[in-house]
C-alpha cells in the first residue's frame, strides 16, 4: 500500500484525519530524519498493519538505512520499557521503583543516530503507549539537549495522527466485512 492509497482509504467521516495526516507529513518543524523516524516508530507502535504498510515504505525511502534501523530499535525497546515503567508507576507500592529492572536496553546508550532523534522517537512512542514515567524521562532529556517544547509537541502530534488513522482504518476494515 502506498501513502496515497492510505490517504484515500481514510473515509469521508474522518476527513479531518486526512487533512491532519497531510499537515504533519507536509509541514513539520521536525527535520526529515526526525519526522520520518517518528512516523515509522508510531506506525509500528500503533499496531495497525494498514498504517504500517502505508507509511513504512515511505519512511524507508526517506531515512538512511542507519536511521531506519534505529527507529525500529526505538519502537522495539519502547514497546518493552513502556509496559515495564508504566506498571511500576501505576503500582501503589513504590518499593518496585527501588528494584533492579533486569532489562537490557543497550540501544538507548548507542542508538546509531543522533541521541536527540532517538529520544524524540522514544518520546513519541511513550505518548502513544501512555507511559507517564517514560514521557517525563524522555521529555527531560529532550529539553536538556535544547529541544523546544514546540518540537517535542510536534512528535506527539505526529503520534496522535498516525494512531488515529490506524484506529479508523482498522475499524473500517472490520466493519466493512
Furnish the topology, listing elements before pairings.
Layout: H1 3-9, H2 15-26, H3 32-45, H4 49-62, H5 65-90, H6 106-109, H7 115-129, H8 132-144, H9 149-175
CATH architecture: Up-down Bundle
Number of DSSP E strands: 0
SS summary, helix count:
9
CATH class, named: Mainly Alpha
- What is the C-alpha radius of gyration, as a whole number of Å? 16 Å
Helix/strand-derived class?
Answer: mainly alpha
CATH superfamily: AhpD-like
Subunit structure: Homotrimer.
EC number: 1.11.1.28
GO molecular function: disulfide oxidoreductase activity; hydroperoxide reductase activity; peroxiredoxin activity
Keywords: Antioxidant, Disulfide bond, Oxidoreductase, Peroxidase, Redox-active center
Can you describe what's shown?
- 75% of the residues lie in helices and 0% in strands.
- The protein has nine helices and no strands.
- Helix 2 (15-26) runs antiparallel to helix 9, helix 3 (32-45) packs antiparallel against helix 4 (49-62) and helix 7 (115-129) packs across helix 9 (149-175).
- The chain is globular, with a radius of gyration of 16 Å.
- The chain starts with a helix and ends with a helix.
- The model has no long low-confidence stretch (mean pLDDT 93).
